[in-house]
Amino acid sequence: MAAEVEVYKEDVVTQYIVVNLGLEHFGIDIKYIDNIVRVPSITRVPNVQHYFKGVINLRGEVIPVMDLRLRLELPEIEHTGKTRIIIIKLDPSAAIGVIVDEVEEVIDLKESQMEKPSTDNSENGLGYISLVGKADRGLVSILNLAAVIGEKES
Amino acid sequence: MDVSQYLGIFLDEATEHVQSISDQMMVLEQEPDNQEAVNEIFRAAHSLKGMAGTMGYKRMQMLTHRMEDCFSAVRSGTLSVTSEMMDILFQALDAVEGYVDTIRETSDEGDNDNENIVQDLENYINNGGASGGGDAAKKPAKKAEAKADKKAASPNAGNEKAVYQTLNLDDTQKGVLKDAIVSGKHVFGFTVYVQESCLLKAARAFLVIKAIEENGDVIVTDPSSQDIEDEKFDLCFSLFCISDETLEKNKEAILSVSEIEDAVGEEYTEEMIDAGPRQAGGEAEPEEEESGETEEAGKPAEADEPSENLPAVPAKESKPASQGGGAPSKKAAGKPVVSRTIRVDIEKLDTLMNLVSELIIAKNTIVSAAATGGGDAQKTNGAITENIEYLESVTTNLHEAVMKVRMVPIESAVQKFPRMVRDLEKKLGKKMNLTITGEETELDRTVVDELGDPLQHLIRNSADHGLESTELRIERGKPETGTIFLNAYQDGNSVIIEVGDDGNGIDVEAVRSKIIERGYASEDVAHQMTDKEVINVLFDPGFSMAKKVTDISGRGVGLDVVKSNIESLGGDVEVKTKLGEGSTFIVRLPLTLAIIQALMVIVGGEKYAISLDSIQTIEDVSVNDIKLVQSKEVIQLRGTVIPIIRLSDVLGVESTNADAENFVVVIVKKGDSLAGLIVDELMGQQEIVIKSLGKYINNDRLISGATVLGDGEVALIIDANTLI
What we know:
The complex is a heterodimer. By secondary structure, chain A is mainly beta.
């Protein structure tokens, strides 16, 4: 039985969308992604967490948008033609947009290709990275979405 | 098929029945001879019992059964209505309500047997019966008589209505039925008629079948059980069942299901089963029967098997029973297991339907105008513009109609109050009377749902603090019975609900000394406070005037909760009081939460909306009129000093208008307080749809939401109340 479970586990393949921030690659579990859109005009909301850029109108819904760079404490850059907003729904009733530099591709990662991030190299140390995947193209940091979007700044 | 899918209907109906019993009991208490009320209660209690039984809620069934017994005794005159009895019954009703609430939350009735109440009821019925002597015996006899009448009537109507008589049974089915008779059980044929107005026929049919299966097995149904489940039948369906109980019992069980118009049935003997369909009367039949009989006789051992193989309901029925046990553990989470529903007047839906068709017509006209205009751009433009105007009027109407669908009368929030006041009357030993007007006033469903608690607080407050004791009232020359009133009416874009009493009113000086006594404010401060400010302290958390804590009020969690509840609904509360004459709490609520009239303004190049409800006036103020008081900016407006708030500062933007000679100041009000908001520019008035900013974004409540403007841009909504 135990061996069977092992085999079963190895076979778990998860699909991730790879996004880039500068030279770093981040993976977002595809099952939470509702949509990927270009950056529309963003309405600033006063007095909110610094990484929230404001709200956008996505087909009549008002959706808050955060800049992943600011969230991960990376320097902010100008938006380019490749900048995208990834609409994430962790909770089906609450969508949130995440601004990334570029959306690269969809990859399959097996569980065996994943490793826990070594503690000393997480520069922000906030637990935003849950796993590191070794894809053919290089390392992909898998985002812990609950921590990235859920946690409120006190 | 699982009973849980009928949970919603069950809960809706149970709530309705409980409410109707409660209403009628109030009537009955006033007029103990009101036969109509007794009948109404009896009917409701009977339905409740049946429903609870069908859904498998035995404890609830037990309790309602006792209540039904009690009303039945009242109806037949063996018991008379007394205050003691009403008390027990009200307790029982509360317990039933408790069951319903538990079921709503966990889909299980819980394990409170409410034995003492059941016992009380039984005792009361028995004692009443003892004093009535032979009456008790008369009752069942009467019942039996009535049943006999019914029975006599049914065969007459039966010939046409008894569709089951024409049913074709196959050999295995006949075998099973006959076998049952041999083993001493009864076999019945039934045709059940569902009311024409019934919405969920399949559900009713299912409940009927389930009711029968309490005491037996359903062997054959026509149409097939699958078709019944899919609602593929007109107004009636027929079935054959095996039962331990009598025809009457089964019929009663069927009729106890709501929205069942009628059921006709009769007991079948072996010969009748053999006789086959009576009206069809086919010649080929007898042969088949014979072979069936012999076959069956040859294999008595297999008798059980066919019934298992039947596609009929029994096999399926075992499932709900086992699932019923499993469901509560699955749904143990605290959330209500039933989805929120709303009952909509069919007329409102018709209006919607019509508007949608108009919308489609308008769209088609525009499409064809665009297509047929040909080269003549001007002509095309003209036609399109004309139709856009039409489209505009249709969408406005559509919007209004959709909003109306969400509107429900506040009745559901206030209907429990008469009962509550009755209880308070007993508890407090004061005579009081509640008058409610305007319960048909409509509000958004979400608001009505939240309204019950704050209003309840206010009424309790009036009963406990407001009204004087009966002796004092007599001494003061007031009518002995105190009056509590609840008046609701629409006022422009808001709904006003006034709750008040003709009691003592608020003694401002008493409150003032209480403030000092409690150390709420220093003596000097307290004496400088205006009457209004003093009264507002009553709304502060933790402040109570009650001399001692009672379980009705006095814990200091009353008025502040009222206030915060009402404010969270976007409304506000005011008090008007006159010492010795009573006080009135005025609750003002927005008609609907989702759409408001707003003033659009521009601050630092950004667009913001301010709810028109909170705006008093708009003023053009010269820079010289702005004065400093305690280093805060104020203006004097028609004799009132109003603090000024520069919105650009609050919102963290550069004003584009900072150095101008004149400022546009939007005067906003909250209760009686005013403030002036400096904006850069006015855009005008607009109807906006409020959208939430979502749960992830943190802001200081200044921004209450956002709205999407005509050009697709998002504008934020400023909650002016937080600025005052």
